[in-house]
Amino acid sequence: MPDDSAAFRAVAPAVAVPPRALMVAMSYWPEPAGSAPMMTDLATAFAAAGTDMTVLTARPNYPGNRVYDGYADGSQDHRTVDGVRIERLFTIPPRGGGMRARLVHEGVLHGGFLAARARGRVARHKAVLSLCPSIFSVAVADRFRAPGGRHVAIVHDIQSGLAGALGMGGGAALKAIQALERTALNRADSIVVLSEAMRDVLRDLGVRRPVTVIPPHVDADAIHPLPRPDGQPPTVLYSGAFARKQGLEQVLEMARHLHSLRPDARVLLRGQGGLEEELKAQATAMGLTNVEFAPLSPKERLAEGLAEGDVHLVPQRPEGAAFAMPGKAVTILAAGRPFVCTCLPGSALARLEAEIGAFLSTPPDSPEAMAKAVADLLNAPDRSAAMGRRGRAWVEAHASRSAVLARYAGLLMNGEVE
């Protein structure tokens, strides 16, 4: 991601944006999964439109469990990349995925954020964006808002809901997180969520600030449809973090069923994370000869990597579906490929499927149904191609950089959504 700010600004769309803005977020480039790609695209879009943009973030570590090579010594804690000033802080990446490890990780990092404010390393701003996860980022960001300024909290995960649904932490810990969420979010000027279902959850939690639904977005210029590679077998692709909330155990079961339906197809799992070794061991124990593992594609080759999938997978743990909206779904749609997801009726993905008809949903924890849906798409390439075109058209209209930039800018400047 070289610093080429002048060229980047020259092609930016004409959008009224704040002159200066700060983003407080745990995740940012070069992290390739989770919220980082969306936050990176949003920050660089503001910079391209003329905002003096600063990002306060962690030394990169997600989705693994250690700080990336070249960052641990702090030598890259102050950089300007694509017109965005990036200020990074020390953290202790969580190991094992438990509640305690996450709290240490987030607590150390956000203590550093507050220290950066106290020492004047990062000034107060009139326009402040924060990202949840972590809710601590939302709470801390309020300290960076200048008098008369506006703070917009972007909620990608409702942490108390996910933690409870996934069995992380006891009742007292969850109540404490809920109280922090309610307090921190009610101090923001505006809140952005990714789906109507997430807005409903926040209302039930006691959040009373204005809540706007803006779907996950993607750089639709960088991620675009490409031809599938010549000579590869029919490929079913999962690309992303290997984490509990993805429910990847059902993907391995799906692969077992798919082998009897389409023995020529391979299931390619691209990613990294705390469950990687566990998944590999499970695949070996199940004798899954049609499953392959590979690292995530680098950012500059992401469109090529997505083109490898004839059909993509977006699995979710059902109990967490109301508390998060998978950003990878929009990235896949931008690449012009159909996918099969797991979701419950009335969830964000179920509503989107009914709206655009660009993918198929199956019940959670029903790998046989998922395998059948995948086989149906592999067996009908014309149908799959038509679904891919519909998905791409929806992204261009609703989830591209240009479609969301003006909406975020309006919230930051006057509280109105364009």
UniProtKB/TrEMBL annotation:
Keyword check for Kinase, yes or no.
no
UniProt key word Nuclease: no
Q: Tell me the ranges covered by the Glycosyltransferase subfamily 4-like N-terminal domain, including all copies.
A: 34-216
The record ties this protein, via InterPro entries, to: Glyco_trans_1 (IPR001296), Glyco_trans_4-like_N (IPR028098)
Which GO molecular-function terms appear in the entry?
transferase activity
Which keywords does UniProt give here? Transferase
Task: Give residue ranges for domain Glycosyl transferase family.
Answer: 228-394
Coiled-coil positions: none
Name of the featured protein: Colanic acid biosynthesis glycosyl transferase WcaI
Top-down, what is the taxonomic lineage of the species of origin?
Bacteria, Pseudomonadati, Pseudomonadota, Alphaproteobacteria, Rhodospirillales
